[in-house]
Design goal:
By secondary structure, this protein is of the alpha+beta class. The chain has 4 helices and 6 strands; from the N terminus they run ββααβββαβα. A hairpin with a 3-residue loop joins strand 1 and strand 2. The radius of gyration is 17 Å and the shape is globular.
Length: 177
């Protein structure tokens, strides 16, 4: 399983905002486990809310990493708010919008909103795709190498892996790490 919960970055305003998208597909293994059919219920495929939160964390983490030229190992330290109102299902697209609330040398805080594009609604209403706001997530990040415990981590940036570099490149974002 790949551990990337965004497919593409569609907007980056350095040190300010990042917008990414995630297309939800029946081809993803986790969809079939949430929730599989039982003798008393038909299958109910959906993207688990924990992975929706992780998609926002990856979006905001890339925004914070980009602000420092990807020199820091940016890790999620705390979820301060997570309000989600609808389960995303296959065929839908999530749009994550992360904004920097505060940025320091030790870490950052971000605010995020999640919009859902549901093609079923568009086809039924025969209208252009209009997103539905389904969530707000506020996060705090830490720069691992500046931890107060003095813990030493490997020099290579294991947070922003080759998969992330590929996604950045295919989204048109240059990185020098």
């Amino acid at each position: 399983m790949r551990w990337m919960w965004i497919d593409r970055i569609i907007e980056l305003v350095p040190n300010e905002r990042l917008v990414s998208i995630k297309h939800i597909s029946m081809a993803e293994d986790h969809i079939h486990d949430h929730f599989a059919a039982t003798p008393h219920r038909k299958p109910l495929p959906m993207m688990p809310m924990s992975l929706v939160v992780e998609g926002m964390a990856q979006s905001a983490g890339i925004l914070i990493g980009h602000a420092g030229g990807f020199k820091e190992k940016v890790v999620l330290a705390k979820v301060t708010k997570a309000t989600l109102t609808k389960d995303p299902t296959p065929g839908c697209t999530l749009r994550y919008t992360a904004t920097i609330d505060r940025l320091t040398e030790n870490g950052a805080s971000t605010k995020g909103v999640i919009d859902l594009y549901d093609p079923e609604v568009c086809y039924r209403d025969q209208s252009p795709a209009q997103p539905e706001r389904i969530g707000e997530i506020d996060l705090i990040f830490s720069h691992l190498d500046r931890n107060s415990a003095g813990t030493q981590y490997p020099k290579e940036n294991f947070v922003f892996s080759e998969s992330f570099r590929t996604m950045l490149r295919t989204s048109g974002i240059e990185s020098s790490f």
